[in-house]
Amino acid sequence: MKLSKLVGERFKEKPSDCVVESHALMVRGGYMKYVASGIYSSYMPLKRITRKIENILREEMDKIDGQEVQFPVVMPATIWQESGRYEAIGKEMVRFNDRNNSPHVLGMTHEEAAVHLVREYGQTYNNYPFMIYQIQTKFRDEARPKAGLMRVREFTMKDAYSFHTSQQDLEEYYDKCHKAYERIFERVGVPGVISVASDSGMMGGNISHEFMLLSDIGEDSIAICSECDYRANMEAAENINDYVRTSPSEELTLVHTPNKHTIEEVCSFLNSSERNSCKAVVYQRNSDDKYIVLFLRGDLEANETKLTNYLGFDIHPATITEDCGLNAGFIGPVKLEGDFIVLYDNSLKNMNNVVCGANVIDYHYTGLDVSRDLNSVEFHDFAKIQEGGICPKCGKHAIKISRGIEVGNIFQLGTKYTKSMQMTYVDSDGNSQYPIMGCYGIGVGRLAASICEAHHDDYGPIWPKAIAPYQVHLCAVRSDNQEVKELADKLYEELQNKGVEVIYDDRDVSAGIMFSDADLLGVPVRVIVSPRNIKQGVVEIVARDKSFSESAPIDTALNDIMKRL
Amino acid sequence: MKLSKLVGERFKEKPSDCVVESHALMVRGGYMKYVASGIYSSYMPLKRITRKIENILREEMDKIDGQEVQFPVVMPATIWQESGRYEAIGKEMVRFNDRNNSPHVLGMTHEEAAVHLVREYGQTYNNYPFMIYQIQTKFRDEARPKAGLMRVREFTMKDAYSFHTSQQDLEEYYDKCHKAYERIFERVGVPGVISVASDSGMMGGNISHEFMLLSDIGEDSIAICSECDYRANMEAAENINDYVRTSPSEELTLVHTPNKHTIEEVCSFLNSSERNSCKAVVYQRNSDDKYIVLFLRGDLEANETKLTNYLGFDIHPATITEDCGLNAGFIGPVKLEGDFIVLYDNSLKNMNNVVCGANVIDYHYTGLDVSRDLNSVEFHDFAKIQEGGICPKCGKHAIKISRGIEVGNIFQLGTKYTKSMQMTYVDSDGNSQYPIMGCYGIGVGRLAASICEAHHDDYGPIWPKAIAPYQVHLCAVRSDNQEVKELADKLYEELQNKGVEVIYDDRDVSAGIMFSDADLLGVPVRVIVSPRNIKQGVVEIVARDKSFSESAPIDTALNDIMKRL
To answer: Could you tell me which residues come within 8 angstroms of residue B89 by beta carbon, excluding any fewer than 6 positions away?
Structure first.
């Protein structure tokens, strides 16, 4: 490909709407163009990258006996009604009526379509296990698309679905797929991706893992133990309580705390520790705005994912009105009266001498003894794990919190979909059974952007060889010079004849423009033909990642370039 | 791939809802599954076929300097409002509001997206010409999806868009793309596809061609001249009038034609020829139901496409009410009074002694002389060309009407989209100009089904080598026989090591089931390992299309198979 003919524009200025580097560089480099919020068109360089990623995904899925199929983007509501997700999923699923007023959806995931496709084939016991996958466009109407390809509304995804007749078989396959994912991330150039235990969210099932590229721009918080191999998404990480009473319980005492609303203000006023206080966090149920009051230790934060999973419905932070019965800033577990759902976090269990709200304006209690003063309440895990927190696996205070980009996920779905959609087989004993499913996703565009996050400098992406849009970037500096043009043309032809993908900058532009454009295209090996080099009888061969730079004699240049690929 | 593990079901009975062979065979062979009207999922064999077709499309597009890009499936209404098609296109375009109540559409074609992507790049004169293409899912909410993959709502399409600075450059590229299309149809195994002049419809522009696979099940009628190379879609074929007066004009005479409504009844009653009559065909404008009365020769049919193109708005066959002012069955061009749009077909020009309606119930005229009795009316081409009609190119009565499946189309779009979407460049003289566009489409699924239509027998598809899901279908007849299993396993491995795509029927089923499944999978070369063959020291190598059948000695079997690929 001649760069003079490459459709797309490259430019120097960082676009003002780009908050992450991969986004800025992929816009500046002519990889993608904004069409609407979370919707982009791709120019050829990005299309070449994503096609290479897709081929790697395909190879690795085929290696674990995956069969490539294709599900529709547009699906009838009926199959989503069967699973119950037509009602369960919110606004992120696009719903529309077709010309015959029949409700349809845009596929944001394809469990329903997968079960629909194999429901008959799966009636035969002998046909198990099997895995089907597709690489297809999906649409998820995200509330807040951002960071370029990191969080979009329309995206291409590799999604795979496996079917099994036993939990053990699923687990074995799950491990196989886990290893395939490790190979994939290694092959595309991000071997540092780690897997973490995760929350299964709307997918259902119990065990699931996310593959995370650690990065400061990541949207996810990950709890990693520095003493053992425990790694979990903060949404899923259990927060362990190791509270031990250190002094006898005092009396429950009402104290005047005028205008002290926050737990910080109260503790500072009473000269007590936040770790020995109890705070309230209030939510409301989305469906009817019923109040949910969560009590937890003053220094902890509520984990909404755990809360939602426990409650089984969606919630939002509360708006506390004058007549709702809650005294904002003074809410406490003693004598709290009203029609609220009240929850207690594990962290409060067994605590004594606690400061808490008194449900009266400008008053708190001191000396709360949770076991003595609260009537046989239940405690659950609703708090976020913290930096320095206790590892749920090894029990040491060794938790570190890191940021990560989720580049893949795998789920043990169980029978959620086969049960709801009535997919059964008859087992060897003649009993009707529901097959057990797993599902396995990787977003292609986000992976491309993540690779760019992991591999770039100030001047552009540094694409790993396996997914680079081209292997060689050939620069003819001063292409108006006859000797330069002839040698560059010759190398271009010879490299192409050897099957090398070459982008050939044949433009009559300055070396500065040429090199900055080459930096933006991020091709691993750059070959520079220039009058000065020719005078010295060489061409320069330079790595985009600066790992090598050599002057190769013109006579052996072709071979020397080939050696670097 | 082992057939025992291939997801999907094959069966013998023709599904009752399948009206065309390709549909029936592709359902029976486990290629696809119905999800909703015009929406299918694909199993692996079809996915392999369509991927091979896509790779051929890609190679041929790359050969004519195409750059693969990707446009979104979901687009904001805004870019379609720019071109005016948001309003112009009817229910076949899916429109929905996203969570922020912003209107979006599902892409059914991507001219707008193409202009949007290159609007800035195209500002520079030197960047022309260029062509971009994508292979992407599209959705068109067809009123009547039918015939399996022939007419669907969701489909994968290769669509290409070229941009030029002169009509001549467009025409040269158009020819180049025409040749690429010929190569594509030859490579995928349907070299008999012909190109015909077509109507540009909603795409705009003047010159366009459709690529047609002649087939009785085709939805299109094509006019082909048996004397010259004229070929056109009937929608676009000009209907030539060679009327010559043969007798002097009689008087215009009112005649009583009680209860004679149709032109056949009237002509039979008056003992005159339909070719010497004038009939009325009545339509209504979609927007306000205004009546449109078309007069044409009694033996001809109206061509709605020509009518719509002339009128510039959409119409539907009229409902004639009692008070509309039209006397159904007796409508004629003389003394027709009322607020109608009245049109005259070329076929009436210069006619005399014509029978026509008198606009009075139970009365017609005889002796109409169009030149004498109608006040300076204009004639246009509104009639369908007929079998035996006059070729618009060579002038001979040599038109044959055939049926065809449209498997591709190319359009010279002109400046319709660049003008409406304000894409301009500054030419070498410093003047602002609109680039000239061409667009070029091929539907992947319909092409696959068309190939099946062209290549099948009663037992299944006969896939051409270049797109067959596998190259070799290896049957181990009596796989419970140790010798059979060992030899078949060995051949399976050896063939795969040589890079051959093999589907290996390793099931313990009868030879009958094995061969009928093999017929349904349509793989070009079948290799049969059986106890009887082994006893004779051979394996059978048989062509799916029956072009060869040989017994190869076991020792040389691998080589003999390779020779047949």
So the answer is: B80, B108, B202
> Has domain A16-219+401-453 been given CATH number 3.90.870.10?
no
The reply to whether residue B113 touches residue A154, judged by beta carbons under 8 angstroms, is no
CB contacts, 8 Å: A117 with chain B: 7, 33, 41, 43
Pick the CATH number of A253-380 from 3.40.640.10, 3.10.50.30, 3.90.960.10, 3.40.50.300: 3.90.960.10
- Distance, CA of A328 to CA of A293 (rounded, Å): 11
pLDDT value of position A204 = 58
User: Are B137 and A73 within 8 A, CB to CB?
Assistant: yes
Residues 6 or more apart whose CB falls under 8 angstroms from that of A47 comprise: B68, B69, B70, B134
**8 Å CB contact of B141 and A67:** no
Nearest Cβ partner for B141 among A33, A43, A99: A99
Residue A95: its chain B contacts at CB < 8 A? Answer: 96
Fold of A470-563: Rossmann fold (3.40.50)
CB B29 within 8 A of CB B530: no
**Distance between CA atoms of residues A174 and A172, nearest Å:** 5
Nearest to B7 among A35, A98, A121 (CB): A121
pTM: 0.91
CB atoms within 10 A of CB A256: 11
Quick: pLDDT tens for A396-443: 999 999 999 999 999 999 999 999 999 999 998 999 999 999 999 999
In chain B, % of residues over pLDDT 90: 87
State which H helix or E strand residue A324 sits in. Answer: none
* Ordered alpha helix ranges (H), A219-349: 263-270, 304-311
Using CA atoms, how far apart are residues A122 and A132, in angstroms rounded to an integer? 12
Question: In this predicted model, what pLDDT tens digit does every residue of B36-90 receive, in sequence order?
Answer: 999 999 999 999 999 999 999 999 999 999 999 999 999 999 999 999 999 999 9
User: What's the Cα-to-Cα distance from A242 to each of A350, A368, A387, A390, B60, rounded to whole Å?
Assistant: 10, 18, 15, 8, 68
Across the interface, whether the CB atoms of A68 and B47 are under 8 A apart is answered yes
The structural domains of chain B, with segments of one domain joined by +, span 29-237+401-453, 253-376, 470-563
Q: Do B70 and A104 touch (CB under 8 A)?
A: no
Mutation site, B11, B43, B78, interface A, largest A CB count within 10 A: B43
For A80, name the nearest residue in chain B, comparing CA atoms only.
B35
pLDDT digits (tens, 9 = 90+) for B244-281: 898 999 999 999 999 888 888 989 898 888 999 999 99
Residue pLDDT, tens place only, B478-488: 999 999 999 99
Sheet-wide strand order for A95-97? A74-76, A103-106, A95-97
Asked if the peptide bond before residue A129 counts as cis, ω within 30 degrees of 0, the response is: yes
pLDDT of residue B204: 58
CB neighbourhood size of A336 (10 A): 18
Find the closest chain B residue to A105 by CA distance. Answer: B96
Domain covering B29-237+401-453 in this structure, CATH number: 3.30.930.10
Domains B253-376 and B470-563 share a fold: no
| Residue pairs between chains A and B whose CB atoms are closer than 8 Å | 164
**DSSP code of A438?**
E
Superfamily name and number for B253-376 = YbaK/aminoacyl-tRNA synthetase-associated domain (3.90.960.10)
Residue in A41, A72, A153 nearest the CB of B41: A72
Q: Is A118 in contact with B7 (Cβ distance < 8 A)?
A: yes
What was the ipTM of the complex prediction?
0.90
Q: Which regions in chain A score pLDDT beneath 70?
A: 200-205
Return the C-alpha torsion angle B385, B389, B391, B396, nearest 10.
Answer: -170
Which two three-digit tokens encode residue B4? 């025992």
Show residues of chain A in contact with B134, CB under 8 Å.
Answer: 47
